[in-house]
Inverse folding.
């Protein structure tokens, strides 16, 4: 897909997006990559850091209220990144907002998600929302890979339009272990800790 | 000899040299047995492979002409500055100044060379860039480490854009009796700088004992410098036929290039140390980053440019 190659090329020129596989290897196992979120290019950077054959089956999750807003944005994330759009406007009663993600996972795809739900002003992640917990509960065989995006908050902090070219590294950690009967809160803290540890 | 013949001889010579280096590397790989030795030879071979690609890129740019060469150097400046900024602690308040440096100063500086506007080219970054960038940072109203942050950004811009741009600026010089051959002068500069780097490395590995500046750069030795500098200067003198210089003048120029290149490597090593890293990046396998390969050019290009302009135009 030309758009996807163009986006990846641009991201590599601007921010490098060099992968570092620290605790895991790039394999075709079904996975949920979860990362810290500080800029609009996070999704692109993580996506570009994956090898080509993994990208084909990996879908970033993007907020519908932002990325679905204009036709252009919609086109970029859907055609360029094969993203899954989700609503983050809270429960609109009838439908589980995670439904599109369940479908993608049932389909055998891997996902890229940002569990904080919104961009932070600093690099270290804030509190994680519950979505990751429900996905982990429902799909117990999917590997949960913590990812730390280094330097990206310096390149394109919240509120800026142009990225400053910087070499950003994408660190992939070891899969998060499943612990039986773990509470939601404990799980989310442990997941966040997995990302934090990669920052050191 | 016409420019075409000179160019073919030059490229032919470089290709032969690289072929010899490739063969020597392969032989060494077979002969060397110790673990440390294998690491050195592997690094040497990675460097030789990177040299091949660099020579190809430079030759293609030279064949395509002035604009392609300017674009090539603009890209080099872009990547060098990107490495510099990556390692420099910046804050959100520097964002606008940095965007301006990457997206306005780099294209503008090379465009000025392209339209042969020497007067503005030579002061654009030290005057306009200096004042404008500092003002942009001040308007962001973040005073924490303001001076230190600004000084680092300015340093990076001077090295990565202003100094490097003096290499392709050789194309805008109007040298009597040398019209249309300026691309050879650019090749001459890059060749002497890089051969000097390689020979200092080789002499250092073979005979190096006395360290020149152990704190800044443990690999630089008196034996390496003297051996490398003397032979690179001699080679530069022997290459006089592609320059507008006499053999003696070419030897003098080569000596200046070699000396400045050495100081560039040393100074940028000191900058690296102060930023707490060993290499600028890992863009070029075996060499480290773009800035690791360009550090000598950063210092040699402006001085070579000005000496040539002052004495030969």
């Amino acid at each position: 897909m030309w758009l996807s190659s163009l986006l990846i090329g641009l991201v590599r020129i601007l921010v490098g997006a060099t992968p570092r596989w620290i605790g895991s290897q790039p394999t075709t196992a079904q996975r949920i990559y979860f990362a810290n979120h500080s800029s609009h290019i996070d999704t692109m950077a993580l996506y570009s850091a994956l090898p080509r054959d993994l990208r084909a089956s990996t879908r970033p999750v993007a907020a519908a209220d932002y990325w679905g807003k204009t036709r252009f944005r919609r086109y970029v994330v859907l055609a360029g990144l094969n993203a899954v759009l989700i609503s983050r406007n809270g429960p609109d009663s009838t439908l589980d907002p995670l439904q599109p993600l369940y479908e993608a996972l049932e389909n055998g795809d891997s996902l890229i998600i940002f569990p904080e739900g919104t961009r932070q002003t600093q690099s270290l992640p804030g509190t994680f929302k519950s979505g990751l917990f429900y996905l982990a509960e429902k799909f117990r065989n999917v590997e949960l890979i913590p990812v730390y995006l280094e330097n990206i908050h310096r390149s394109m902090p919240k509120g800026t339009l142009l990225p400053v070219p910087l070499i950003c590294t994408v660190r992939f950690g070891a899969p998060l272990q499943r612990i039986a009967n773990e509470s939601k809160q404990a799980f989310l803290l442990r997941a966040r800790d997995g990302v934090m540890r990669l920052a050191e | 000899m016409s420019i075409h013949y000179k160019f073919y001889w030059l490229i032919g010579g470089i290709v032969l040299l690289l072929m010899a280096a490739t063969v020597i590397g392969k032989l060494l790989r077979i002969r060397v047995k110790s673990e440390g030795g294998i690491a050195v030879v592997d690094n040497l071979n990675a460097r030789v492979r990177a040299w091949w690609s660099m020579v190809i890129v430079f030759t293609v740019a030279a064949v395509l002409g002035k604009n392609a060469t300017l674009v090539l150097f603009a890209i080099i400046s872009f990547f060098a500055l990107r490495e510099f900024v990556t390692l420099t602690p910046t804050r959100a308040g520097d964002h606008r100044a940095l965007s301006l440096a990457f997206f306005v100063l780099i294209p503008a500086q090379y465009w000025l060379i392209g339209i042969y506007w020497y007067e503005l080219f030579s002061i654009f970054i030290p005057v306009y860039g200096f004042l404008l960038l500092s003002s942009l940072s001040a308007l962001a109203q973040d005073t924490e480490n303001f001076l230190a942050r600004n000084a680092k950004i300015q340093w990076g811009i001077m090295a990565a854009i202003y100094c490097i741009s003096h290499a392709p600026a050789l194309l805008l010089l109007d040298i009597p009796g040398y019209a249309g051959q300026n691309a050879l002068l650019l090749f001459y500069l890059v060749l002497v700088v890089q051969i000097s780097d390689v020979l200092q490395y080789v002499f250092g590995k073979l005979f190096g004992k006395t360290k020149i500046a152990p704190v800044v750069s443990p690999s630089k030795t008196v034996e390496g410098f003297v051996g490398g500098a003397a032979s690179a200067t001699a080679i530069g003198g022997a290459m006089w036929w592609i320059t507008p210089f006499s053999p003696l003048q070419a030897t003098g120029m080569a000596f200046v290039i070699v000396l400045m290149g050495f100081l560039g490597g040393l100074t940028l090593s000191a900058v690296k140390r102060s930023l707490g890293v060993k290499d600028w990046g890992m863009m070029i396998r075996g060499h480290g980053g773009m800035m690791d390969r360009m550090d000598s050019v950063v210092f040699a290009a402006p001085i070579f440019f000005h000496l040539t302009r002052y004495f030969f135009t």
Q: What stands out?
A: The mean pLDDT of chain B is 92.
